[in-house]
Amino acid sequence: MNAAPETRSDTTRAPMIEARGIHKYFSGTHVLRGINARVAHGEVVALMGRSGSGKSTFLRCLNRIEEPSEGDVLIDGTIITDLRTDVNSVRADIGMVFQDYNLFPHMTALENVALGLIHVRKRPRSEAQDLAASALTQVGLADHLTKYPNQLSGGQQQRVAIARSLAMRPKAILFDEPTSALDPEMVHEVLDVMRTLASEGMTMVVVSHEIGFLRKVADQLIMFDDGVVIERGPTARVLDAPEHARTREFLGALK
Amino acid sequence: MMHMTNFQMTIQQWRKRWAYQPWFRRYECLALGLAVWVVAALLFLPPFGRPAPLGAAGVILWYLAGFTMAGVLLTDREKPILLKRATSLSVIILFFWLFYRYSGTRWDRVQAQFFDFSRMDGVWEMYAQGLLVTLQVAIVAAVLSIIFGLTFGILRTLGNPVINLFLGLHIDIFRALPLIVSMVLIFYALPFVGIRLPAFWAAVLALVLMNSAYQAEIFRAGIESIPRGQIDAARALGLGPGATMRHVILPQAFKIVIPPLTNNLVSLVKDTAVAYVITVPELLTNAQQAVTWKRTPTPLILSMFVYLATLIPLIHLTRRLERRLNAGNTR
Questions:
Q1: d(CA A214, CA A221)
Q2: Banded pLDDT at B325 (limits 50, 70, 90)
Q3: Tell me, what's the ipTM?
Q4: Which residues lie closer than 8 Å to A9 by C-beta, 6 or more apart?
Q5: Residues in chain A whose beta carbon is closer than 8 A to a beta carbon of chain B?
Q6: What's the distance, Cα to Cα, between the start and end of chain A in Å?
Q7: pTM reported for the whole predicted model
């Protein structure tokens, strides 16, 4: 176990991400039923739950890739679920990493990472490419700048996706099951990058079932079930002494 | 002695190789069959001209016999590929030769009617002018229909019900309406409501209306085939809808739509011939004028060759383009 995770997050400021009473309906089905969550600056929060429990939908609501039906999301104290907010600039400040990478197949790794810098951050092309190259170096892909996604392994692709988020200098990164689509031997290379990010103080919300990884990295664990939060608390406490029967059931199934 | 041994060795190898060949696949049998077949042709094939029923049956039987032997040869893995190619070519040539001999056609008349190249002076210039107009109509119509088709296709993916209603109407109508009908209506009926278009632009308009409808569907399908995750990733980066379309969706969609799109463009070039009915001086119109002028249908035959000579290279060009795009590293 590494140093007490609680000391890393700064709880005196307004939370980096705050969700207030999020509801989401998909054509009649009530997928999220009033979710509240606070993610402090530099905190790593893990979301767990069975498939269909709403954790991914909730994550996608945090940068309005999915529009919440009710409730508010605050980023650094500002309400972003307001019709007047410029949703694109909000999204630019929050990175997102997907289960199946979603790299742009018609661009090289470098172009994938530079795209947002050029067209969202409006950096000149050469500067954007330098920044992109350094982001790719940061995730250990300095040798693969000019490769296309289909020339890279799953783990490498996911690291490009992380670099794509990192290059934007985000306030926080959302991870949607980043290792679920990977072959087992590639999982660790992605988790290593994420662990480094966490230790550098990046605010992260992670949907993941990698218990060992979460135990070391996540400060807070939130258990979803059927669209509600059934349990939340410090990761170690929830993992070792789950209070809710469903949590015990779920964790038991994972082992 | 050395000679003998070598010779025997060869025979032995040859035997080994052919030991499992059925008798009718052996070269000697095929050669014998061929010889009998040729002798039969020399002895029994009826003379030039339409044969009597019995003679016709004989010709057909004789052709089928040759066809069977060719089949035996072609279905054999052991036979060399060159021999097979020569055989299949011979079978095809033989068919046309038999048609030439026994169809009863007066070939001298055919030649005088359709292949009378002696009086074609002045016609070539007409073809050049006609081809130029054909290409002008085709290029203007192609560019405009791609612009409108792409715009309509993108608009269709927005899911706006009002836009979809109008575009759906346009797409349904102009995919259902025969080109010749819309072209005639535009040229001959629109003047009654005060819209008078030159023949050239009437032809372009009709072509654009139809092809933009087809292309809107092509582009819409291409755009909709891009996985949802691509849009999510682009939007999550902070790209707006326009930038997402321009930098992420369209580059991928273009690659997907290239085959159906080039297909559509080739048929657009062909369809310019319909402009003949509204007197656009394109290739077919000029060919028809040459027919009246020279009092022989030869120019029509010639126009066929001009169309082929223009379109076959175009088709091959599009195929090359497709292959080049697919050879890229992306997907």
A1: 8
A2: confident
A3: 0.90
A4: A40, A41, A42, A43, A219
A5: 60, 63, 65, 88-96, 98, 100, 102-107, 115-116, 119-120, 148, 150-151, 161, 164, 168
A6: 19
A7: 0.81
